[in-house]
User: Fold this.
Amino acid sequence: MDIFFQQLANGLTIGSIFALVALGYTMVYGVMRLINFAHGDMVAASAFVGLTIYTQVMGQATSLVAVVAIFFLAAVVMAGVGIILERLAYRPLREAPRLSAVVSALGASLMIQNGIMLIWGPQMRIFPELIPNISWEINGVVISLIQVLILTLSLALMVALYLFVEKTRMGAAIRASAIDQDAARLMGINVNKIIAIIFIIGSSLGAVGGLFIGLYYRGITFNMGWQYGLYAFIAAILGGIGNIPGAMLGGMLLGLFQAFIAGYVSSTWADAFTFILLILILIVRPTGLLGERVAEKV
Amino acid sequence: MKRTIRNMLLTLCAISMMAGLSWADTLKVGVQAPITGSYANEGQGIENGVRLMAEQINAKGGVMGKQIEVIACDDQGTAMAAAICAKDLVNKGVSMVVGSYTSTCAEAAQKTYFKAGVLQTSDGTADSLTEHGYWTFLRNSFPNSAEAAFAASYMVNVKKYQRIAVISDFSSYAAGLAEATVAEIKKAGGNVVTYAKIKAGAQNFTPVLTNIKSKKPDVIFFAGYYSDGGQLRSQQKALKINADFIGGDANDNPDFVKLAGSNAEGAFIINVPSPDVLPYPIAKTFIADYQKKFGSMPPSIWGLMNIDGMRAIIHAMEHNQSFDTKKAADYLHNMDKPLDGITGQISFAADGNRKGGAYVVKRITADGSYSNEYAQ
Assistant:
């Protein structure tokens, strides 16, 4: 039984990283009907930005304040990159056929990936051990401090995002833009501003996810964004793309699914089963577990 | 009629192009290495080393009056890119290729070099590399089977482990080493409790390690590369699996220690001796030159092994007073007296394997350096 709970803990940790990244996909899709393929590479970039902030800005300080500052600064930088990305790669194509925007997204993905390689080099970069190496063993199940941090911080961010979208005026404007952009404009909502906000939130959450990857696994490479982006994208579809609680649920479920498949079946097959799951979801329930709002499909 | 004339013209063009290549007054040396990607650290070490060696030979007047021209190709550590690199280097008219770092990439490129009569020297340790009967292939390291026998006897007879867990990835090198080690352990009467495979670069190895934990091993033997090995070690300690960790030769890279961080201490690595302890005078001067030029130590022994392969081929050409690759290979396969190399004496068996080779077990200390634990 302790194996089961250990895999559960492992799966929830990686699942919450997937969920944070998946939120970026799902929010952009919700409002713009665009799959932002560059998001995974933004996540990778944020890990490199965080590492640079640690070595250049923080002077390699390892205090709690420094760690919080790294998260904050990396999120701010990536939010800026997100706005630039939207402005340059997506806004000019807002009225173009959807395929053009998708191609533009793929192009942006390649540009960011190669940009990371040019700036930080092609070799693996290694994060310092910023989070102390503490862990607890409860009935044979080992949980480390960093796992607890990842899980609680991710959940806190997701709850905050949910409350923001559901309870504030700005959130109502986001929801309105997601349902019908023209009607939202008629109601006096500045849709361009809403889309900019979506990119700020999505990129900052992705930045937190990227830093978690760096802190948890320590080794980061310029091309890792593709893998995490793909998993997060599957998580978003699993939960129902365009649906914010869906992305959270999808991320967690995918993390658990992978941990149990790798644990009980074979790690060889973890990826294959993940894609089989994606295909099954698309066949049986194309709108995902929590379902997308389909009102606009009329 | 028109067609014949066109064909003749085309043939003429082709002949003059080929002639242009063979009349060029440089000796073209190809480097096929993972210059980007997960193993970039090693790939760049190989490229830097070859360029430095070429520079030094050129400064002394080149090879029989010809200057060496280095042409590098990045195989990214993937078989697909390696096959493209092989074609590219052959088209550019190289007469020898140094690399690649991984067995998978060396193997994907082998046949192309063989068909073109281009000599290839690689540190790839997969036994299969020398089993195709290609006279063009010269292994500058020692094969997995030798390491497997050493690792198995160390674990079973020296450390007397009772429950051995083996992990590998899916590459030619790692799977080959793991399977050979498992076979050798069984032959020596040892007990392999599990043999698990991971996907290289997957980062999250906790599901596999959690399973291994339930088998209660007293040692984990990892055949695979340092970029995964460091994370495996780190995650093993995080899961509080109280077993020794022994990494195969490809874990011998400073990034292993950096990735595992404070968890690196106490891990063992099996390999031939490290570059910094190489006692040979030629090694000391070359490593000092390398440090002066690139500001760091060579990342591992592998780059130096490859350079020894390159030096051996050039030595053979100079001995024969001919750039003919077949003659050079014939000489190398039947050397009467080994060449003094950076990594020890170098000579080859008829199948292209490097002769000799002794392994050591290194223990990673608290400050991340190696201490010698056991020597063959």
Residues 41 and 225 of chain A are 4 Å apart (CA to CA).
